[in-house]
Queue: 4 jobs
Job 1
Amino acid sequence: MRWLMSFLFVVQMYLVMGLMAVVFTPWALVNRAGAFAGVHTYCRWVRWTARWMVGLRSEVRGTVPTGEALIASKHQSFFDIILICSVAPRPKFIMKKELKWTPILGWYALRIGCVPVDRGRRGAAISQMMNGVAQGRQEPGQLIIYPQGTRVAPGAARPYKVGTGLLYQQLNQPCIPAATNVGVFWPRTGIYRKPGLAVVEFLPAIPPGQAIEPFMAELEQVIETASNRLMAEAGFRAG
């Protein structure tokens, strides 16, 4: 029964994505505020339906950044994107280039100011990322980057990439680390969603001005420690 409800939840999630895209696109075409309204509405819908369809409650802890900020977040599944975008006023992401061709999702991502990069070419990707961010700085908002570069399953290890440190230096803004446990309930792949409490937690800001190496060491330590705490709270034990 839980698998069936998970399947129905996933189906309606994508159907509603298409429906809301149609509803909000006329507004989004003339004003970026329409794109943000569509994103916020959809993310809140997913959180609400996850709660009553599959028993997956969700919570955002800590102080939500509302001004110009760099958010460096642990990334375990699509659901941590949903949680962050449901509360951040003007979220925009560093995203892999291929996503801009995704129907609906790609157009909205570009409309809200996301920066597509080619992850396959490390040096070029860093340059492209920094140029894209510099070009978009006139649009205020919360820039979200995943320091590990991709979704990482609970208990798995993956290095933190230097691109986050370069952005931190270039922007000269506070960096807000964010931890999560969503992968315990909503896996990177597959249909089944587990009941429980999925959390994204915004952690205390790291002030601007550090050198890249100590910044990256601090960032990894605070995100991994907090994510491990949240996963343990959810009952996850690394094998």
Note: The chain has one domain: 59-233.
Job 2
Amino acid sequence: MIVKLVFTSRTPLILPKSYNHLIQSFLYNCMDPNLSSLLHNFGFSYGKRRFKLFTFSKIIGKLLEKDLKRGLVIFERNITLYFASPITEVVSSSIKNLLKGKEFYLGKNEVSLYSLEIVKPKIGEEVLVRCLSPITVYKTPPGQRRFYYLNPWQREFYELIEKNLIRKYEVVYGKSYQGILKVEPLKVKEQYKKKILYKGTLIEAWEGYYKIRGKEEMVRLSLEAGLGAKNSQGFGMVEVV
């Protein structure tokens, strides 16, 4: 399930340059408390891995100012945010609370829901997508404790995205994936690289345009769960071009 949320505030929104953690906290607060606690503390298990199985976009809106000295960005009063999950209850729980008309806080900014749209993209076994939030992929070499980030010019970047999607598929559908799955670059540039600070950790991620080929339910999963790692921290959300 994918939703497009438009929020409004009485004054321009002042946020830190890296605001992912604030959006994540905002979305958790919108959910039913029991569901929010379950996702935050446990998620969905796959061996030693845990998936939160939701993702969200960066803020889409008119940027009024960048205050580099204080590390702040200032947006106009109306902003758009996309939010998705293959677990319908995760999104519907948030919708129910948002539709109650309460005021919510995004950081120190008081916001209210202005409009809501359920997004139903047309998909097939091949789609062209662009990033609504950048994709991050990393690996830890055998015998080492330190990981490093991969980039879109490395084939392993796409291999790890594909393996990650297959794991998510097995968690969501409870069965192994049978069929083709291919994620390929369409348009990537060096300037698409993003460095985002999340709770003290600097994360390297990449925007761009990509092609996804696979069964329709896998393609849909890629849109609802996100590509790559750290989706619930605001990475890897894509939309059909």
Note: Residues 73 and 149 are 26 Å apart (CA to CA).
Job 3
Amino acid sequence: MDWLLSLFIFLAALLAACLLLAVPMVRRHSLKASSSPAEFDLEFEDISFITEDGIPLRGYWIPFPGSSRAVILLHGFAGSLDPDLRYAPHLHEAGLNVLMFDFRAHGRSGGRITSLGALETRDVHAAITWTRQKGCDRIGLLGFSMGGRAAVMAANSTPGVKAILSDGAPPRLVTAVTQNLCLRKIPLPISWLAARMMLFGGSLITGCNLFTNDPLFVAQDLTGIPTLFFHGEKDRYTTLAQMRIMVESAGKHAGLWLVPEARHRDIEKTRPDEYIKKLIAFFTENL
């Protein structure tokens, strides 16, 4: 019986370690700096809406009168809508309504748990529903990193989405977490194990399987929706092979802009004019 007790203690300790490792990945992230569309001379409304699981989300609606086209911006992990406000004037100038909000457990919005895309699909669904209620029937999703993951995973199950642009979205979360640990100078074998322990603990905390809730596995459902992926070839959070598999799975309406010199979410810094031109051209063409 001693071995059974030892096994139980080992498994309990392993479970506790998985849960503790997952806490930094799923915890809430507070608002670091607050901005407003008024800083860009844009008319806007403060808005809020509720997800299907009761999480209040808050953000901004920047209307373009007479337009039934809209782009919903989806920010990255541990951030908020504020840094992405710089895109709003370009989208608005192109005749598009703009919706921006903070994901659950981020910034202005409610909630205590984030999941790097899995639960956030519910936030995207709620944002799309709210936008459709404003009379918009042609909706684009513009997602950055985690926001790009949520966009790809949510789009196929929500009517009205006519275009998706994903900048820097890791196709597989386990790869992104492993690489993040490696960047912190943790040896690869330990990073490999710790990443899987984190995802296991995170899956228990969030109630979502974080090993399978990945854009790589649902990209084939996007067939027919114009989708454009931006990827810097020096992005350490994924591999070019995974990106190519995801793009190929998304079908003939998907495209990939590869920038050799760019890192994660770094393309705009290396090619600012081309970045904005491609972004605006994609949405004006497909919406």
Note: Residues 53 and 122 are 8 Å apart (CA to CA).
Job 4
Amino acid sequence: MEAYLEAFIDYLKVEKGLSKNSILAYNQDLKKYADHLNDKNIVKPAKIVQKDVTDFLFLLRKNISPTSISRILSTIKSFHKFLLREKITNSDPTNLIQAPKVEKKIPSFLTFNEVSKTLKALNLKNLRGLRDRAILELMYAAGLRVSEASSLRISDLNFEVGFIKCRGKGSKERIVPLGGVASHFLQRYINEARPKLLKQKASIYLFLAQGGRRLGRQSIWKMIKKVVKKCGIRKKVSPHTLRHSFATHLLERGADLRSVQEMLGHSSITTTQIYTHINQTRLKEIHMKFHPRAK
């Protein structure tokens, strides 16, 4: 079974161009599936039947949320479609299996005042403070994922036209406006802090740690967590919260859904529509709080 799994992973890397993080997630899901098949002494894909898959999903229900089960099932379905397409099998045992219903959760976001408070909490008098301010300003201004911010290159910036090029999921590129404030702090970081972080070394990456190394996703996550705690914000905040805030604030101020979809890099507008539910929820809260006959 391992040879077929390796062939599928190679297909995802070469033909689908998935990111390292996506490949890692696929590997983890498929390993669980392969272990289950090995326990049932199934070594050839052609021997897998629908019950083998449903038994595996049933076992997962004990310890894993419906959201995670849906993701794992999606991975397994992709694997079997690959086997069918490559004529390794002549049927797909997952064809009639449906994913469990998952309740859509409203994403957490910061208010405009909370974003401002977070940004202003950084000390611009030191290298890290200036760098971190540039990171947060950019992530909020462009709605970047933390992996996109970490992998940005100097060549991706175009201050003249005010745009940035970033690589999203599946190595898809998109162009997003920078905005004046983010441009200002990025230029300050590049001129004042980045050369000192490089220490006469060379790097293609925009955001650097000490010694000129690329700043990793985990480092950005820890920085955001530390700044939010310093501000006394009690919400559960992650790097993705800034992305949620970016989309929510645009829609609140009249941006159309299709434009927000393009800036976020969503392949489907249904993914972007979750932010309209945020606005509806907030409107209800405001109405309940201030209307004299709401209660």
Note: Residues 22 and 115 are 29 Å apart (CA to CA).
